[in-house]
Automatic annotation (TrEMBL):
Reported function: Component of the origin recognition complex (ORC) that binds origins of replication. DNA-binding is ATP-dependent. ORC is required to assemble the pre-replication complex necessary to initiate DNA replication.
Any GO BP annotation: DNA replication
Protein name: Origin recognition complex subunit 2
GO molecular function, one term: DNA replication origin binding
Cellular localisation: Nucleus
Region Disordered: start-end pairs: 36-81
Domain of life: Eukaryota
Organism of origin: Knufia fluminis
Entry keywords, A to Z: DNA replication, Nucleus
Gene behind this protein: ORC2
Length: 473
């Protein structure tokens, strides 16, 4: 026989109106509604169910509770929080690990690369061309600003090499004013690793000499320290009325010698001359930190946003980056920049020995040029990469060794000269200093036909001169 409590619940449930309401609910909700109804009846009768006896447990968290993850409730949380919750990092053993490596990739050959690059078509080529046309409208304004003794600095995303080339063509097409000679234009690629300040100043001097009307002027070769060469060049500019447009690509390139503070001081002095009109481009976001206040004032810059979104094809050293990515070491460590960086951390005796080695090799090259009667060929801008350091010279005595691939000095000759200058006191000390150069790939060692050990430097002539200047100063 049912209890009184159940009879009361049944009596309430038997009510027709309440029964219809319960039937309209889902089956799961009907059970909840009946339980709530029973609780209300118990409260009306004054009877409450006895509480359950809590189970006893020790202090602290339950065993194994620290290993359980507490999920974030699926509530009304911001989308960014929900993203981080869904992509949260789990235990290491649950994370998928990739087995891919560079060794399983098939490297493209040169022919395959050329074939793939021909198939590629830039989807934004029309927009980039339109940007260049918009910037070309500002060419008259740039020319006017340059004529008013201002220098121009172009900045913005993308390579501006094509834009500078278009501006150079625009300047060449402009007719000079009455009683004024046609201006000369010198383009300097600051991203070139083998750039040398001496060649730049000599090229400008050659451009000044060509104003005399000679079709093939003799290349000018100013000698001395860069400061003395600049003073000589400024004296030549005072005696001419021909304007010189100096267009510099990537003045702030990380591996460019133009980024040195000493070089920047020389260029700012050169740009301050009334006959020199300088336009340069910068690509790094922090390019303004490159110019101290005194250098910026001497440049007298006007800044223009010249965003082109063009790819940096010539400005980036793709071959060096790929070789470094694949773990391949080149023939030298970072060119003159890397050698200068290593020399700063070496003791004074090591720097003096490297200075002596560079001086001897440059002396050999100077003697070869004097015997052959060849100088620098200065048609326009002199590209230091065209300097032939590996040419086969004449052998004049047994203390200087030459080869078709390199120019060097014999080991015993260098050791004798180092001993005379008190750079090293013994052969073991000499070998120890050379080991530092070998470890950093700053020198090369080979044996000639007679088996004599010959020491060389994996740098071209311009880079050796640049490193030697820093060591002398």
């Amino acid at each position: 026989m049912p209890s009184a409590k159940k009879r009361k619940v049944q009596a309430v449930v038997d009510d027709k109106e309440l029964a219809d309401t319960l039937d309209a609910l889902d089956p799961s909700l009907q059970t909840i509604a009946e339980q709530a109804l029973a609780n209300s009846i118990e409260e009306a009768d004054g009877t409450t169910p006895a509480p359950e006896t809590p189970s006893k447990r020790g202090r602290g968290r339950p065993k194994g509770a620290k290993n359980k993850r507490t999920p974030t409730p699926d509530g009304d949380i911001p989308p960014e929080e929900r993203y981080f919750f869904q992509t949260r990092v789990g235990p290491a053993n649950q994370q998928p690990t990739s087995t891919n490596s560079f060794s399983v990739l098939g490297l493209l050959s040169h022919d395959d690369y050329l074939e793939e690059i021909r198939k590629y078509k830039d989807p934004h080529d029309l927009e980039k061309r339109f940007l260049l046309k918009l910037h070309a409208r500002a060419f008259p304004q740039w020319q006017f600003e340059l004529s008013q003794d201002f220098s121009i600095c172009l900045y913005g995303w993308g390579s501006k090499r094509q834009l500078v080339t278009n501006f150079a063509e625009y300047l060449c097409k402009q007719a000079p004013k009455r009683d004024e000679p046609h201006p000369k234009t010198v383009v300097i690629n600051g991203y070139a690793h083998k750039l040398n300040i001496r060649h730049i100043l000599n090229t400008i001097a050659t451009a000044i000499q060509s104003s005399s009307g000679e079709e093939d002027p003799t290349p000018v070769k100013l000698i001395g320290q860069p400061q003395d060469i600049l003073d000589n060049l400024l004296g030549r500019l005072d005696n001419t009325t021909q304007p010189i447009y100096l267009l510099i690509n990537s003045l702030d390139h990380s591996s460019s010698p133009l980024r040195h503070p000493a070089t920047q001081a020389l260029f700012s002095r050169l740009s301050a001359h009334p006959r020199i009109h300088t336009l340069c481009t910068c690509d790094t976001p922090t390019f303004q930190l490159l110019f101290p206040s005194n250098v910026r004032d001497t440049y007298n810059f006007v800044f223009h946003d010249a965003t082109t979104f063009a790819s940096y094809d010539a400005e980036t050293s793709v071959v060096d980056d790929v070789n470094e990515l694949l773990g391949r070491k080149g023939r030298r460590v970072g060119g003159s920049q890397g050698v200068s960086f290593v020399l700063k951390s070496l003791p004074e005796n090591a720097r003096n020995l490297y200075r002596l080695l560079l001086s001897e090799i440059l002396t050999i090259l100077a003697d070869d040029d004097a015997d052959a009667g060849d100088g620098d060929h200065g048609e326009g801008f002199i590209d230091p990469s065209l300097l032939d350091v590996s040419a086969t010279p004449r052998k004049r005595n047994d203390t200087r060794s030459h080869a078709a691939d390199d120019i060097g000095i014999e080991y015993r000759t260098l050791y004798q000269k180092a001993s005379e200058e008190f750079i090293c006191s013994s052969d073991m000390n000499f070998r120890f200093l050379l080991k530092e150069f070998h470890d950093h790939q700053m020198i090369t060692t080979r044996k000639d036909a007679s088996g004599t050990e010959v020491l060389g430097v994996p740098l071209d002539r311009g880079e050796m001169e640049s490193v030697l200047e820093e060591l002398v100063i």
